[in-house]
């Protein structure tokens, strides 16, 4: 970056070009009040509290760019007086509570530093407030109309829920709906709460008024969010062992001082009275509290008995993508070393296993190809089967921001999701027809010469086969299969094809299908044809991986066919490296995948199943059959925070720590390792997953090694060269480091394949997979296609988000249906309906609207009691067994 030289109060310094005088003055170590300014926002220049003199003229520092050679004065008596008067004038209009002792607001802080007496605040007040929302309260009397909240909501969050109304000193912020906050468009990202300088907008509770800029540093624990895969860096404030606030970290490498309703506010579950605090053991049909010794003895005896009766492969574990890398490393090590089986899997099976398989086949490694920072520099975004506004809100906000600043946007989603409203082209394929859609786009790229010939020639393979296949996918035919008008297809292909730096971002709408891996591969074709991967000419193909640590759980080898770092168990050289570290033989036969575990249980071949942090009875498909499998398995162990649906079916339930109570690391969706640190103590007798696994091993007479999580990551690096450069100490120093990272002295590789692809021949492989129809089709009995997915306020099984204020934001599972279908099936908005599939039934509340297309209905699966996964089928991706959650034929019955 080029710098420019300026002088602040006689001292010379260099600042980046384009910096404001405010930034320059602060860089010089001078504190200025700046009540309408926030680094995260565009400057407004309205409060006049930041006045300085630049080259002899008085200027508002926040809106004046630093020019080369400028001489800035801040400290002369007249300037100090001008600023003090401006602040005092603002404060004097507010009621006394604005400056009450101990008020943590920025305004109160500024007044203290300027020696403005709290007694100046003598405004009349009486304008009232709004406390309708569980997390965001408004005190109108404290609003100074600086507009920071409004800009935060529009510029950073992209929700545009707030506006300023009134004139002069009566100006005040209100939600744009004109009604109560709780009924507005607010998605409770907490952005307004975090920027408000006066405490007019606050979160209720003991941390009222704390913001990321003005918080007690000593009381904060820096950690990484334990909900979604974005990986927001958060500062957790705790008091008396309880979380009182979670604030977004300004220096968070992905979130840049932003967060969402889950990471920010959904921590009520931690102290829920329903938290498990003691082990439970099934006796005479019911689960009863017991001590750890008894629980561990039962578990170790049961596992031994299972191995003795059926061999090591009659035991299996489902590891948790919610848990840390170190937890996952130890769980897979336990299964391989203590039990002697590769029967370990994680919920990647249910979401992005087709990404792992597809991206590995196309490019060589299983993660996304580019860093999100790169993606953000794209000039055209192709967002496919992903709804980041709800499921990865901080990423959704950053993407929307790009689009509002001019990037082209193509959205491919059957539903009118949030980003689709801003798209240049919204492609709405029939669920399950992606492969045809992507081939249609590729056909146009080829036909119109929008490919990168040189790249194709030098760095790829498979072009002749693909060209031959694509001849069969002209836009008209693709329109017939997908329902997407041919003209839209052509327009989308041109946007992507003509962009200078296009990026592909995708989600479960690509993977959770009968042909999910083919979907990933044919989507990857587009980036390859365009030369937009591994080059400066684009930002690759990037899955928005879901769980906080689903990338990491897989990286750590909690998968049946690979060891930590993705070496294949079937490869003797890979095994021997692990054997050197672990000192025991590693089984060479790949283990069971999650659905195969259930099938083995039903057929009597699986004698023990340890389910760690996955509510399989609620979230795996065809739930009636899952329950049957657990019923048939002689020993089911469940490590949980709550008595989940799965825990209710278990023989032993072990109480464990949540992300706010443990030490370790997560890997986010763009492959960054970040630290997780305990902010509050464990409840009751709960233990971490890490300690639980070690304790079970010890009870079975084996010392697993790895005394601490830091030791586990170090050991993992010894086994998997791609992680060898990572350590807790390094992450403590550097914050976030992406993998591959073989060397402790080198930065990790954020953008992959700049030299060569990691495939055996170093080339990117085009795939010529024909379109095949989904596993389920509608018919006269089941005329509608059900798509399942996510809502912004809840998280997966809802075990954490249903226990706290989020429940007030979204109290039930809704079934969205189009008004044509509502009329056809005589369904009224708000009415309870029964949804029936060929596999089971669920009860949901109908919501009539236009978000779904006619013939399609949509619901989430956040309330296990409604039974959504009793509807979904056994159909699964032909390559990876990822369930076809996105296509189920159903009918809706009013009863
Ligand atoms: N609020 C919230 N956030 C979450 C989660 C949560 O439960 N709640 N869960 C986390 C997890 S585990 C994951 S994996 C991620 C998932 O994040 P996403 O992948 O964004 O989530 P989904 O809503 O399941 O599905 C995405 C979209 O796919 C579309 N779709 C369905 N079928 C098709 C199709 O055939 N073609 C195309 N092109 N699109 C289709 C759906 O309409 C839907 O809008 O979210 C994570 N974040
Ligand atoms: N119909 C339908 N079903 C779906 C999907 C869909 O799109 N449609 N999506 C699928 C996808 S992508 C996913 S990832 C799965 C997610 O499904 P799950 O993994 O089952 O869902 P979660 O609610 O994230 O977490 C599971 C459990 O882990 C517990 N838990 C949280 N933290 C920890 C921890 O640190 N340790 C332990 N031991 N337990 C912990 C929680 O209390 C919760 O009960 O759902 C899948 N199911
Ligand atoms: S966007 Fe994801 S990681 Fe960030 S606060 Fe929300 S749930 Fe947590
Ligand atoms: S901070 Fe500069 S005018 Fe308000
Ligand atoms: Mo997921």
From TrEMBL:
Keywords: 2Fe-2S, 4Fe-4S, Iron, Iron-sulfur, Metal-binding, Quinone, Repeat, Ubiquinone. Its cofactor is [2Fe-2S] cluster. One of its GO terms (biological process) is formate metabolic process. SMART domains: Molybdop_Fe4S4. Residues 218-274 form the 4Fe-4S Mo/W bis-MGD-type domain. Pfam families: Fer2_4, Fer4_Nqo3, Molybdop_Fe4S4, Molybdopterin, Molydop_binding. Residues 134-165, 178-206 form the 4Fe-4S ferredoxin-type domain. InterPro entries: 2Fe-2S_ferredoxin-like_sf, 2Fe-2S_ferredoxin-type, 4Fe4S_Fe-S-bd, 4Fe4S_Fe_S_CS, Asp_de-COase-like_dom_sf, Formate_Dh-H_N, Formate_DH_asu, MoPterin_dinucl-bd_dom. This is Formate dehydrogenase subunit alpha. Residues 2-78 form the 2Fe-2S ferredoxin-type domain. Transmembrane segments: none annotated. NCBIfam families: Fdh-alpha. PROSITE patterns: 2FE2S_FER_2, 4FE4S_FER_1, 4FE4S_FER_2, 4FE4S_MOW_BIS_MGD, COMPLEX1_75K_1, MOLYBDOPTERIN_PROK_2. Signal peptide: none annotated. In the C-terminal section; belongs to the prokaryotic molybdopterin-containing oxidoreductase family. One of its GO terms (molecular function) is metal ion binding. CDD domains: fer2 (cd00207), MopB_CT_Fdh-Nap-like (cd00508), MopB_Formate-Dh-H (cd02753). One of its GO terms (cellular component) is membrane. The keyword Metal-binding applies. It comes from Streptomyces luteolifulvus. NDH-1 shuttles electrons from NADH, via FMN and iron-sulfur (Fe-S) centers, to quinones in the respiratory chain. The immediate electron acceptor for the enzyme in this species is believed to be ubiquinone. Couples the redox reaction to proton translocation (for every two electrons transferred, four hydrogen ions are translocated across the cytoplasmic membrane), and thus conserves the redox energy in a proton gradient. It comes from the Bacteria.
């Amino acid at each position: 970056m080029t710098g420019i030289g300026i002088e602040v109060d006689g001292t010379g310094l260099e600042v980046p070009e384009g910096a404001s005088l405010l930034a320059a003055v602060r860089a010089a170590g001078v504190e200025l009040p700046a009540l309408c300014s926030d680094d995260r926002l565009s400057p407004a220049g309205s409060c006049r509290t930041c006045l300085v003199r630049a080259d002899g003229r008085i200027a508002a520092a926040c809106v004046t760019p630093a020019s080369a050679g400028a001489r800035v004065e801040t400290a002369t008596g007249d300037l100090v007086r001008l600023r003090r008067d401006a602040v005092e004038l603002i404060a004097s209009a507010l009621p006394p509570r604005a400056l009450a002792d101990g008020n943590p607001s920025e305004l109160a802080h500024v007044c203290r530093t300027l020696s403005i007496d709290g007694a100046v605040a003598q405004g009349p007040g009486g304008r009232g407030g709004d406390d309708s929302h569980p997390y965001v309260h408004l005190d109108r009397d404290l609003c100074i109309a600086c507009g920071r909240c409004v800009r935060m909501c529009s510029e950073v969050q992209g929700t545009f829920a707030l506006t300023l109304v009134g004139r002069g000193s009566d100006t005040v912020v209100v939600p744009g709906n004109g009604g109560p906050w709780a009924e507005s468009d607010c998605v409770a990202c907490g952005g307004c709460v975090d920027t408000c300088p006066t405490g007019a907008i606050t979160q209720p509770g003991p941390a009222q008024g704390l913001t990321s800029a003005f918080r007690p540093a000593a009381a904060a624990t820096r950690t990484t969010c334990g909900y979604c895969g974005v990986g927001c860096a958060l500062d957790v404030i705790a008091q008396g062992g309880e979380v009182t606030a979670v604030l977004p970290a300004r220096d968070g490498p992905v979130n840049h001082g932003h967060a969402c309703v889950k990471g920010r506010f959904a921590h009520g579950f931690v102290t829920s009275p329903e938290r498990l605090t003691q082990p439970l053991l099934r006796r005479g049909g019911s689960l009863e509290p017991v001590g750890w010794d008894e629980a561990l003895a039962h578990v170790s005896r049961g596992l031994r008995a299972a191995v003795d009766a059926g061999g090591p492969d009659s035991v299996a574990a489902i590891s948790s993508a919610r848990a840390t890398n170190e937890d996952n490393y130890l769980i897979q090590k336990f299964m391989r070393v203590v039990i002697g089986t590769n029967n370990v899997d994680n919920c990647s099976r249910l979401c992005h296993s087709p990404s792992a398989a597809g991206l590995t086949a196309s490019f060589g490694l299983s993660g996304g190809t580019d860093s999100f920072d790169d993606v953000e520099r794209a000039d055209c975004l192709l967002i496919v089967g992903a709804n980041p506004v709800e499921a990865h809100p901080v990423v959704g906000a950053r993407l929307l921001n790009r689009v509002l600043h001019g990037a082209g946007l193509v959205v491919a989603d059957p539903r009118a999701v949030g980003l689709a409203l801003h798209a240049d082209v919204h492609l709405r394929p029939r669920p399950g027809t992606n492969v045809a859609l992507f081939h249609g786009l590729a056909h146009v790229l080829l036909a119109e010469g929008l490919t990168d010939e040189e790249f194709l020639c030098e760095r790829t393979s498979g072009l002749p086969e693909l060209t031959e296949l694509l001849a069969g996918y002209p836009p008209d035919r693709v329109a017939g299969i997908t329902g997407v008008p041919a003209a839209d297809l052509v327009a989308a292909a041109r946007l992507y094809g003509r962009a200078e730096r296009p990026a592909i971002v995708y989600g479960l709408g690509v993977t959770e299908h009968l042909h999910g891996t083919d979907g990933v591969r044919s989507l990857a074709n587009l980036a390859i044809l365009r030369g937009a991967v591994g080059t400066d000419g684009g930002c690759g193909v990037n899955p928005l991986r879901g769980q906080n640590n689903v990338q990491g759980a897989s990286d750590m080898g909690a998968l049946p066919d690979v060891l930590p770092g993705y070496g294949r168990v079937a490869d003797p050289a890979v095994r021997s490296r692990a054997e050197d570290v672990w000192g025991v033989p590693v089984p060479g036969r790949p283990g069971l995948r999650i659905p195969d575990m259930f099938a083995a249980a039903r057929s009597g071949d699986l004698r023990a199943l340890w389910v760690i942090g996955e509510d399989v009875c609620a979230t795996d498909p065809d739930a009636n059959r899952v329950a049957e499998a657990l019923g048939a398995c002689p020993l089911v162990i469940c490590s949980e925070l709550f008595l989940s649906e799965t825990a209710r079916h278990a023989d032993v339930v072990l109480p464990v720590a949540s992300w706010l109570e443990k030490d370790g690391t997560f890997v986010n969706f763009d492959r960054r390792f970040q630290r997780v640190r305990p902010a509050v103590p464990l409840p009751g007798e709960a233990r971490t997953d890490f300690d639980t696994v070690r304790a079970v091993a010890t009870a079975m007479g084996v010392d697993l090694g790895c005394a601490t999580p830091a030791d586990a990551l170090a050991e993992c690096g010894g086994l998997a060269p791609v992680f060898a450069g990572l350590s807790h100490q390094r992450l403590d120093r550097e914050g976030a480091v992406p993998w591959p990272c073989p060397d402790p002295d080198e930065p990790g590789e954020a953008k992959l394949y700049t030299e060569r692809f990691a495939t055996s021949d170093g080339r990117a492989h085009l795939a010529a997979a024909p379109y095949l129809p989904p596993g389920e089709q509608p018919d006269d009995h089941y005329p509608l296609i059900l798509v399942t997915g996510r809502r912004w306020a809840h998280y997966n099984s809802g075990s954490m988000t249903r226990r706290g204020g989020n429940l007030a934001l979204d109290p039930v599972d809704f079934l969205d249906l189009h008004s044509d279908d509502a009329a056809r099936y005589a369904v009224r908005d708000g009415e309870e309906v029964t949804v029936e599939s060929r596999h089971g039934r669920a009860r949901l509340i109908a919501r009539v609207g236009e978000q779904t297309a006619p013939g399609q209905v949509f619901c989430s699966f956040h309330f296990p009691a409604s039974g959504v996964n009793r509807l979904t089928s056994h159909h699964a991706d032909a390559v990876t067994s990822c369930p076809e959650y996105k296509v189920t034929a159903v009918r809706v019955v009013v009863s």
